[in-house]
Amino acid sequence: MDKIQLSILFGLFISTSVCAGPIQLTAADNGRTNSVNTGSEIEIVLEGNPTTGYSWDVASFNTNRLQQIGAVKYLQSEQSDGKHRVGVGGKFVFQFKAVGSGQGLIKLIYRRPWETTSSDKIYSVMIEIK
Predict the structure, then answer these.
(1) String of b and e for 66-99 (b: at least 16 CB within 10 Å)?
(2) How confident is the model at residue 10 (pLDDT cuts 50, 70, 90)?
């Protein structure tokens, strides 16, 4: 390969690694271990419906290895006619950044803030940070 081809390949490698978005996790990843590199962003997307009084909240995470980015976001599901309706569910979005190597557990809970019961849903994911 000549220098021009190597330069193009290097440029493509850098642009794809820089432009790569956060690692997305969903309910299917509950209880799993996921490997990421230090500096990677992790986005957890879980379905919920706050009009029922329930919402997803952070129960705990390893602050030595993970940093939460901003507050949890809620995105209401859009209906087929493009409108938003009262009582329709959506998705809760949590964002974290891997800041230190090792293992970090993220634990989220789906509950009504004024209640604590054994039926609360728990989401937990282990993040292995390289």
Answers:
(1) beeeeebeeeeeeeeeeeeeeeeebebbbbbbbb
(2) very low
The candidate with the shortest Cα–Cα distance to 76, out of 87, 95, 91, is 91
The enclosing domain of 61 has a CATH number of: 2.60.40.2020
pLDDT per position as a tens digit, 59-75: 999 999 999 999 999 99
In a domain, 112, yes or no: yes
Indicate the average pLDDT of the chain. 85
Contacts of 67 (CB under 8 A, 6+ apart): 96, 97, 99
| Number of domains the chain is built from | 1
DSSP-assigned beta bridge partners for residue 46: 92
| Residues 26-33, mean pLDDT to the nearest whole number | 97
Q: Which domain holds residue 125?
A: 22-129
Residue 45 has pLDDT above 80, yes or no: yes
Structure token pair of residue 71? 């507050």
